[in-house]
Amino acid sequence: MPSLGRLHLVTDTRPGRDPLTVVRAALGVAGPELVVQVRVEDSATDREAYDLTGRILELCAPVGATCLVNDRLHVALAAGAAGGHVGADDLPVAAARRVLGPDAVLGATAREPLAAARAVAAGAGYLGVGPCHATTTKDGLPAPIGPDGVRAVVDAVPVPVIAIGGVTAATVPALRAAGAYGVAVVGALSGVADPARATAGLLGALGW
């Protein structure tokens, strides 16, 4: 598996958002330390997801950044992404690993130690853990687990833990202190006027 960057940017494709501009700005600052996870709205077609992934891959390749696709693993394979990420309602981790093959990057979502350990045993190479804090980016999320919840998962698994959910530069130090390898953000970059500056702030908080 390729080395995993510590800052994960999940694309925001809600109406009025411009994911490519945000990705371009973040890549200009973070380079290979950025992982771009292509997540599209449920209403988006596979063709739309494929086209967006292809354009993001073109941006990632020159700087050595990693591109993953959320949920739609067939799109990840077709576009040539490095791998994918599956949530609780997506394919089971073991099935996702069979789809992607042994060498692809595969992340899974977990929020407590037992589920995290099962996901790793099934083939997950990293875990997205949260929500750490309250967030309005995604509806229907469970209660935030905070840094203590992150630490509980970190202590249970041998793979990188990426904290997600309401993450800002101000909350990163506590998450890193809890053992998080890195963080994943949506609104912290897609909802700001200067995503390049925000990227620099997040990297600084991560210790880069």
Automatic annotation (TrEMBL):
One Pfam match: TMP-TENI
Protein residues bound to 4-amino-2-methyl-5-(diphosphooxymethyl)pyrimidine: 37-41, 70, 109, 138
Keywords, comma-separated and alphabetical: Magnesium, Metal-binding, Thiamine biosynthesis, Transferase
Location of the Thiamine phosphate synthase/TenI domain: 7-189
Enzyme class, UniProt record, top EC level: transferase
Gene Ontology terms for molecular function: magnesium ion binding; thiamine-phosphate diphosphorylase activity
Catalytic reaction(s) noted: 4-methyl-5-(2-phosphooxyethyl)-thiazole + 4-amino-2-methyl-5-(diphosphooxymethyl)pyrimidine + H(+) = thiamine phosphate + diphosphate; 2-(2-carboxy-4-methylthiazol-5-yl)ethyl phosphate + 4-amino-2-methyl-5-(diphosphooxymethyl)pyrimidine + 2 H(+) = thiamine phosphate + CO2 + diphosphate; 2-[(2R,5Z)-2-carboxy-4-methylthiazol-5(2H)-ylidene]ethyl phosphate + 4-amino-2-methyl-5-(diphosphooxymethyl)pyrimidine + 2 H(+) = thiamine phosphate + CO2 + diphosphate
Highest taxon listed in the record's lineage: Bacteria
Transmembrane segments: none
Pathway assigned in UniProt: Cofactor biosynthesis; thiamine diphosphate biosynthesis; thiamine phosphate from 4-amino-2-methyl-5-diphosphomethylpyrimidine and 4-methyl-5-(2-phosphoethyl)-thiazole: step 1/1
Listed cofactors: Mg(2+)
HAMAP family in alphabetical order: TMP_synthase (MF_00097)
PANTHER family: THIAMINE-PHOSPHATE PYROPHOSPHORYLASE, THIAMINE-PHOSPHATE SYNTHASE
Protein's UniProt name: Thiamine-phosphate synthase
Gene symbol of the encoding locus: thiE
